[in-house]
Design goal:
Keywords: Cytoplasm, Protein transport, Repeat, Transport
Strand order of the largest sheet: 1-2
Distance between the termini: 94 Å
Number of strands: 2
Shape: globular
Radius of gyration: 32 Å
Strand content: under 5%
Protein name: Importin N-terminal domain-containing protein
Low-confidence stretches: 349-373, 377-384
Number of helices: 50
GO molecular function: small GTPase binding
Main location: cytoplasm
Pfam family, one: HEAT_EZ
CATH class of one domain: Mainly Alpha
Largest sheet: 2 strands, antiparallel
Helix content: 55-70%
Amino acid sequence: MKMEWTPQENGLREILTLLKESQSPDTATQRAVQQKLEQLNKYPDFNNYLMFVLTKLVTEDEPTRSLSGLILKNNIKTHYSMLMPSVTNFIKQECLQAVGDPSPLIRATVGILITTIASKGELTTWPELLPALCGMLDSQNYNVCEGAFGALQKICEDSADALDADSVNRPLDLLIPKFLEFFSHSSSKIRSYAIGCINQFIIQRSQVLMYHIDSFLTNLFVVSADDDAEVRKNVCRALVLLLEVRIDLLMPQMHNIIEYMLLRTQDCDENVALEACEFWLSLAEQHICREVLGPHLNRLIPVLVRGMKYSEIDIILLKGDVEEDDTVPDKEEDIKPRFHKSKTHTMKATSTNGNTSNATEKGSGDQGEDEEDDYDDGDDDSSLSDWNLRKCSAAALDVLAIVFSDELLPILVPILKETLFHLDWDIKESGILALGAIAEGCMSGMLNHLPELIPYLINCLNDRKALVRAITCWTLSRYSHWVVSQPHDAYLKPLMTELLKRILDGNKRVQEAACSAFATLEEEACTELVPYLGFILETLVFAFSKYQHKNLLILYDAIGTLADSVGHHLNKSEYINLLMPPLIHKWNVLKDEDKDLFPLLECLSSVATALQSGFLPYCEPVYRRCVSLIQQTLYQHMANTQNPDQFEAPDKDFMIVALDLLSGLAEGLNGHIEKLVVNSNIMELLHHCMQDPMPEVRQSSFALLGDLTKACFQHVRPCISDFLPILGQNLNPEYISVCNNATWAIGEISIKLGTETRPYIPLVLSQLVDIINRPNTPKTLLENTAITIGRLGYVCPHDVAPMLQQFVRQWCTSLRNIRDNEEKDSAFRGMCHMITVNPGGVVPDFIFFCDAVASWITPKADLREIFMKILHSFKTQVGEENWKRFSDQFPPPLSERLSALYGV
């Protein structure tokens, strides 16, 4: 039955006035409107008025009517469960009547309203919705058909899972065949909607869609050359999605699909070309990529390189003709929010290159960079930070270079020769980008070209075009590993000289690219930079006075990376006097609630760790402010938990960054931090942070606990009985980094507590053994777990040794690859104690123990004695003949090492 509801004249007038005022640019007016709207929500039929303005008040202008609908949408989002049934019924009924409104704007707004109600789980309580929309698709009135399709596409986008899971009404049985009928509709917008709707069900491999898949593919090929760009884009999207979930369905047609995508990657419409270009990125991840794409490379590669050229629009947006802009202040909205990465304890792998930073470093050990990120930073401006054809083409070339490696070069080298030396700057620029994109995949084949190319690129750092200088910075950073491995005078020195000039470039984009490239170079070169430190620091410090807001944040990063890379070599009075004044000046002018503190605190954390005692003159105010930031955040968190309406939730990043900086201080100052800790309530605050609901807060608090344990255990000891049960509860590998830091902290505490660790072993040991035996545990966590088990065995061998059999093999394989250090030393001593207590526990896996022992380069003399004793007693016990049978299984390098070092 239809409900009659009619608005009252004065109520209608009041709402129209409000809608007009809310379009005012004045913020005070807007705030007043906001408050008024909140008050009006208390009247049950306020939402009926909004609906009436949207669908019935045709005398008003469309933007005002649409706005009324958007306010209604927000009310539905926040207060839906509180609305009276008579109101929701009125809204639903009006929506269905207005789906075909003559105005496209009103139709779209009604579509948004319908979807918002549907996404509130209301598909079940609005059973007539889908059949009604489905019926409207057959309407002779175009507006009704288009409006219904618009609403259906939004519902498919927002509620695809719910539609697919609904086994009661089985809506997809009706919808998918219906959508397929419209692939050949006379209106391109309808054709586009029909494909768009079905595309929403590919990713979850919807059963109904799979049943109709042949018909879907046939229809896709029919519209593949459609005149309408949006239709072609949706066809490309469908093929990219199918490639990811059902490549088997595409295989019979793969040759034709590749031909089609080659054509579409060159489409005159950039959105179609971008969608098609995604296909190459996806295909590169499939195991059949080499086989199916190999024959097409000679046509694909030139297309990708052409796609890497800046479009006319890009150049306008990037102000590509503006050379000097370093005095123009940044717009605040152009600065992307920065997210702090909490500290994670990682082990250094054994490597031939002697550069090592300390064992606790931020960011977890072994996650590769995401391809897309690389191309979002290489040449980025927020006006263009959207993924575009240029970035997608570069990322595709990058992943294809990894798949095909040097096989690409016969095709690429002639293209590079032509583009790199081209007279048009934009073509030259795209060549330099392509050269950077292949750096990882084609490195071995590029080696003989680099002695000629690197000097050419260093020369391009002086190009008159800012965009060329910027991309050259990025490309050179991709080859920095090679540059560092050559004699310094040949490439590293000229590169550094020119990059440092670019850090002071007159163009902000070039400054940014140069700073990022320099940070990459620092990570590669590490202590090789020590001879040039004075020169580097003078440049970076001068940049402080020159940079606008956005690049300052990147400068902090370059300084922090420098400190991580050269470590204690930074601790010289002339360097400290250069570096610290500008950092401390920034520290003093930034307010406690300014998010620019994040990158500055991260930077100071690295600097404090590197300077060690050199940071002493600065440590007290820095320490106090960190403690105060943690305390303020905890207070705000408590206030918000108790009175969510009165107090906003705090931004916990302030607390996380402060915890990480305290870790840096504890690590750098070591015992000197004791007098700061003794006069503060940090232990009490730490106890709260360790129990915070947010994983990143716990992660950073465990890192700090481990560092304080090493630096001033006398202050940690009284809290152990409170802390250890919390650490035990956090040995949950679902939160890898939290688990990792908790594990590491347990190991550090056990070394200091010694035999007094015994009562706590039942709280942690079985979880640690579970973690080391779990499949797919990340390397960093395995290594830390093995070290901690070893340390527990070192201090309480009788409590851990009975479980030896359960972890010894995984333990040995986890620790064979880390380089000799204190942590490895204590862990191996623990293992030897446990073997002495329970020799039977190691017998079945003794070959793994031999292999782990052989991974030591230079064990301390007494540890070497212990190894020798265990190996020889094993040999004696099994007898000469059995030992020979056993040692014949060793790979030759293992036999040689054991015989040379331990005489077995």
